[in-house]
């Protein structure tokens, strides 16, 4: 029997940008005017776990599904490459308890997310409990949208939303919650 190598799976990749919002209403108007489509709003609870490399979180999309998200992304402001795996979880209660028992909880983030789609970019408008309101772009890389084109789209969106350098964020919401404690 052929066993897969230790690193045989290829992660998905995107270009991300996260920023603090000064006006959710203004961002909603811009997102609505640019969106090719809009997905239903989501109430998400992310539980971050301690891990040796990257970040690991269990995302509960209330009333829909639960998924494990493992990702690596540098903590730098502005657009940055992120590689990630999203895996569905079939036994969420037992799975979460196994992660809590073996890795321990690092932080917990609860948010309401509006999701707009513009070309290959997911535009997220987030209201994060205990942190405030944020904008996030995730430009998903593919054969149709390579990294250079996705970087350009994110830069263009940044300009359209009027995101200043001071609004750019480096850390994940989980890390921001940790710092706020």
From the spread of the alpha carbons, the general shape counts as globular
Overall residue-averaged pLDDT value: 94
Strand order, sheet with most strands: 1-5-4-3-2-6-7-8
Tell how many strands the DSSP assignment holds: 8
Strand content: 35-45%
Helix content: 10-25%
The biggest beta sheet, please? Answer: 8 strands, antiparallel, barrel
Question: From the helix content, strand content and strand pairing, which structural class follows?
Answer: alpha+beta
CATH architecture assignment: Beta Barrel
CATH fold node name: Hypothetical Protein Pfu-838710-001
In words, what does this structure look like?
With 181 residues, the chain is of the alpha+beta class. It has a single domain, classed as Hypothetical Protein Pfu-838710-001 (Beta Barrel). Helix content is 25%, strand content 43%. Strand 2 (37-49) and strand 3 (55-61) form a beta hairpin. An 8-stranded antiparallel barrel has the order 1-5-4-3-2-6-7-8, surrounded by 4 helices. The model has no long low-confidence stretch (mean pLDDT 94). It contains 4 helices and 8 strands.
What distinguishing features does this structure have?
single chain, 181 residues, Hypothetical Protein Pfu-838710-001, eight-stranded antiparallel barrel, 4 helices, 25% helix
Write the layout of secondary structure elements.
Elements lengths: L11 E9 L3 H11 L2 E13 L5 E7 L3 E8 L7 E9 L3 H11 L2 E14 L2 E8 L3 E9 L6 H15 L11 H8 L1
Antiparallel strand pairs: 1-5, 1-8, 2-3, 2-6, 3-4, 4-5, 6-7, 7-8
């Amino acid at each position: 029997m052929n066993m897969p190598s230790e690193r045989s799976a290829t992660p998905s990749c995107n270009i991300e940008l996260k920023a603090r919002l000064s006006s959710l209403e203004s961002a909603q108007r811009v997102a609505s005017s640019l969106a090719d489509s809009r997905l239903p709003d989501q109430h998400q609870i992310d539980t971050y776990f301690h891990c040796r490399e990257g970040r690991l979180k269990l995302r509960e999309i209330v009333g829909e599904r639960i998924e494990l998200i493992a990702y690596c992304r540098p903590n730098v402001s502005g657009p940055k490459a992120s590689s990630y795996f999203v895996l569905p979880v079939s036994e969420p209660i037992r799975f979460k308890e196994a992660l809590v028992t073996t890795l321990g909880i690092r932080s917990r983030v609860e948010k309401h997310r509006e999701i707009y789609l513009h070309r290959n970019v997911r535009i997220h408008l987030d209201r994060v409990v205990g942190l405030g309101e944020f904008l996030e772009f995730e430009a998903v890389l593919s054969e149709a949208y390579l990294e250079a084109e996705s970087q350009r789209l994110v830069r263009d969106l940044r300009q359209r939303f009027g995101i200043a350098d001071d609004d750019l964020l480096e850390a994940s919401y989980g890390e921001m919650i940790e710092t706020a404690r």
